[in-house]
Amino acid sequence: MTIMEDAAKGIGDIVRKVAEDEEVEAEKLRRAVASGHVVIPHNPIHDPVPLGVGEGLRVKVNANIGTSPDRVDIDEELAKLRAAQDAGADAVMDLSI
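RE: above sequence
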């Protein structure tokens, strides 16, 4: 079952957590998720912190780091990671190839 399907039935734990973090009314967020105006990307395999993305929620910042066959400098990538964390990024993705 998806979070969107859950939201159509009622306020689940994930919607409740996101509503608390975003400081929005849980019922309002539930309706927004059920209608598709807000999404909560969530894959339990990765033990994620649930974040809502969409109408009426705070902006999320995603930072990308990574090496390429032309440039491999792990120390530089770790410095980018620390800078992203220090700046308050919500997510960091390693796009190394």
